[in-house]
Amino acid sequence: MEVVAAAKPVINVAALCGSLRKGSYNRGLIRTALEISKESINGIKMEYVDISPLPMLNTDLEVDGKFPPLVEAFRNKILESDSILFASPEYNYSLTAPLKNAIDWASRPPNVWGDKAAAIVSAGGGFGGARSHYHLRQIGIYIDLHFINKPEFYLNAFQPPAKFDSEGNLIDPASKERIKEVLLALQAFTLRLQGKN
């Protein structure tokens, strides 16, 4: 008798980078996560969602209950996702203005972040962006976004050996493995929240 294993449900992950710089190490983390999700994890469909075109939050731009087209498109990407991967650099002990702006637009009624799983990765100097994680987690409480607790991923990008190449691509094998662990934890947590695991 042949036993057939049930296929793992596919989760849709929206990947957002808080840095707008093309050579950003945090964007490099997103590129690595996209690569890993395609090549070595079954059941994750990840899409990079660019936040750079979003206008600064201004409720005067909401006309007749409608959002500007760029904002509406962004909100739909978040709404259609099952979970979120944030790559968040740390600016002044917090997250970046572009990332906070994107979060605020998607939290305007009706909040499209609600009841989704999320994970954070970061790279930078010193603590590797770790302090931005705490502010993201605080925001998550209000917008009903549920972050995985472990594993945490924050990477000191300037500590030898080199972690990134000159174009901001992650080249460190140990860090790539750690990102894979984050993605697997996000996948498991997402399925658990959806009652599929």
From TrEMBL:
UniProt entry keywords in alphabetical sequence: Flavoprotein, FMN, NAD, NADP, Oxidoreductase
The reaction(s) catalysed by this protein are: a quinone + NADPH + H(+) = a quinol + NADP(+); a quinone + NADH + H(+) = a quinol + NAD(+)
Gene Ontology CC annotations of this record: cytosol
Stored PANTHER family: CHROMATE REDUCTASE, NAD(P)H-DEPENDENT FMN REDUCTASE LOT6
Its cofactor is: FMN
Any Pfam family the entry gives: FMN_red
Write down the superkingdom of origin: Eukaryota
* Top EC class for this record: oxidoreductase
Q: Where is the NADPH-dependent FMN reductase-like domain?
A: 12-157
- What GO molecular function terms would the record report? FMN binding; NAD(P)H dehydrogenase (quinone) activity
Q: What does this protein do?
A: The enzyme apparently serves as a quinone reductase in connection with conjugation reactions of hydroquinones involved in detoxification pathways.
| Gene3D superfamilies in the record | 3.40.50.360
Organism encoding this protein? Hibiscus trionum (Flower of an hour)
Q: Does the keyword Oxidoreductase apply?
A: yes
This entry's Enzyme Commission designation comes to 1.6.5.2
The protein's assembly and partners: Homotetramer.
Q: Which family does it belong to?
A: Belongs to the SsuE family.
> What protein name does the entry list?
NAD(P)H dehydrogenase (quinone)
Q: Does the keyword Cell division apply?
A: no
Task: Tell me which InterPro entries the record gives.
Answer: Flavoprotein-like_sf (IPR029039), FMN_Rdtase-like_dom (IPR005025), NAD(P)H-dep_reductase (IPR050712)
